[in-house]
Amino acid sequence: MSGTVVLDVNETLLDLDALRPFFARHLHDPGVLRQWFAEQILYSGTLTLTGGYTDFATLAVATLRMVAQTHGVTLSEQAVDEFRSALSRLPAHEDVVPALSLLRDAGLRVVALTNSAAPAARAGLATAGILDFFTDVVSVDAVRRAKPAPEVYAHAARHLGARPRELRLVACHTWDVIGALACGWSAALVARPGNAPLPLGVQPDIVAPDLVEVARQIVAADG
User: Fold this and answer.
1) Which end is more exposed in the chain, N or C (fewer Cβ atoms within 10 Å of the end residue's Cβ)?
2) pLDDT digits (tens, 9 = 90+) for 63-86
3) Does the keyword Protease apply (predicted)?
4) Structural element, H or E, at residue 7
5) Rounded CA separation 216/219 (Å)
């Protein structure tokens, strides 16, 4: 049984679709958002595997410029500043507040674990109006490795003073779920649009299309 629920932040809690107008305006296709985020995850993992590290926000701008170049677009500094501002002001998905309320009211400890720097993550959660739900915000900055590196989940367990089996990750990214399961955690996958479980290897015991249903199942299993 897991007494602590550890939630991913970007896309799991905060809605990346709020960036679609930026991509429509500057790259002429809102769908390029998905390409940018895929490259962000690819290169955060690449840097981790090769012994490098760059904070999420800095890498986000670098991958944005790279993706823009592949589309024949050179972004102005004003456009990049607009992107930084939009990235720092992402709203929460509509299901986040009711889901976090369910978890908190069930007496579960609710924590955030993010690839973003801790100050940026706290500011983003505060701007979205959900920071007060969390007893802690844990960042990969402490180990300078990005999820799903095992060092991240080990650090989170040490920081929280918990055994792996006492922790449950909640994320909408299968790669994050795989990382947590490999480290002995429980996991739940929020199968938001564009996300699905990988039918290979160990599976999360909870998979649902929205965070409220995930929270209900967690309360039934762990509460």
Assistant:
1) N
2) 999 999 999 999 999 999 999 999
3) no
4) strand 4-7
5) 5
Q: Is 2 helix (H, G, I), strand (E, B) or coil?
A: coil
Spatial distance between the Cα atoms of 19 and 218, rounded to a whole number of angstroms: 30
Range 144-148 average pLDDT: 97
Q: Packing angle between helix 77-87 and helix 20-27, nearest 10 degrees?
A: 170
Instruction: Give the C-alpha separation, 85 to 95, whole Å.
Output: 24
**Rounded-to-integer distance, Cα 153 and Cα 181, Å:** 10
Q: Which of 177, 183, 114, 178 is nearest to 146 (CA)?
A: 114
Domain that holds residue 180: 4-15+90-222
**For residue 222, what pLDDT is reported?**
85
Listed residues 62, 88, 114: the one ending a domain = 88
Residue 125 and residue 22 share a domain: no
43 and 95 housed in the same domain: no
Same domain for 104 and 54?
no
Tell me, what's the pLDDT at 223?
73
Going through 40-192 in order, the beta strands assigned E by DSSP cover: 109-114, 136-139, 167-171, 186-190
